[in-house]
Amino acid sequence: MLTYADIDVRKKAVVFELDGVLFPKKDYLLQVYYLFANLLEYTETVPPAKDLTDFLKKAYECHGEEGLFERAAEAFAIDQKYKESFERLHLTAQLPLKLLLYRPMLDLMDALRGNGKQLLVLTEGNPTMQLNKLRQVEWNGLDKVVKVYFEEELRKRRLNPMAFLLEDNGLQAGEVLCVCADAARPPAAAAGVECVGAMGFWDPPATSLN
Q1: Strand order in the sheet with 13-16
Q2: What architecture (CATH level 2) is domain 4-23+101-197?
C-alpha cells in the first residue's frame, strides 16, 4: 500500500487521477443506475426500480459500461426515449450518497498536505461528468488545497495535459509523482513524470446503497 513514507522527499507535488485512484469509479456509476431505475419506475411504474438497479449493476460488473442501456432496454422493454435521461444522469446526477475517498488515499493526501506538498488532480473523461463527481466527493477539507485539471479540455486546446500542469505550477518533471490507474499511462510518461499505479492498492468500494 502506498504511503507518504514511500514517496521521495524531493518530490514537491503529487498528481492523482480520479476514477479508480481517489475512489472507485463504480461508486458513482451504481448511484447513477439507482437514480435512473427510480426515475423510470416513477414515470412508467415498471420495471420495479430494484429489479432494474440489480440488472444494471450485474451487467456493468460483467460487461462494463458499453451498451449498458441497450442491454437493459432489451431485457425490460424500455423505450429508447429514456436513453437521453440515462446519459444526462451520468453528467448531472445529484447522488444520494457522497463519494468517499479510499481511506489510504485520504491518509496519504493529508500527510502530503501536512508536509507542504502540492496536491493536483488530472482527470480524463467528459469534463462535465468529472466535475460533477468532484463536487460530490467528501474531501474532508482537502478541496481547499487540491487543484484540478481536465485532460479533455486541455487536449482540445492542443496541449499536452501533464506538460501544461507542470508549467502552470512551476514544476519540473523530476519534482512530481503521478498516482495513476495505469503506471505506464502515456500522459505522465510523455512528460517524463514518474508514475506509480494505484491498481490493487485499495480496498473494495467505500459507498453502498444497500
Answers
A1: 146-150, 118-123, 13-16, 176-180, 194-197
A2: 3-Layer(aba) Sandwich (3.40)
Distances (CA, A) of 6 to 11, 95, 204: 11, 34, 22
Convert the pLDDT of each residue in 38-70 to its tens digit: 999 999 999 999 999 999 999 999 999 999 999
Q: Could you give the dihedral angle defined by the CA atoms of residues 38, 131, 121 and 185, in that order, rounded to the nearest 10 degrees? A: 70
pLDDT for 120-133, tens place per residue? 999 999 999 999 99
Strands (E), 59-174: 99-100, 118-123, 137-138, 146-150
Strand partners, 146: 119
d(CA 77, CA 169): 51
**Under 8 Å between Cβ of 100 and 27:** yes
Domain ranges of the chain: 4-23+101-197, 27-92
Nearest to 163 by CA among 145, 151, 180, 181: 151
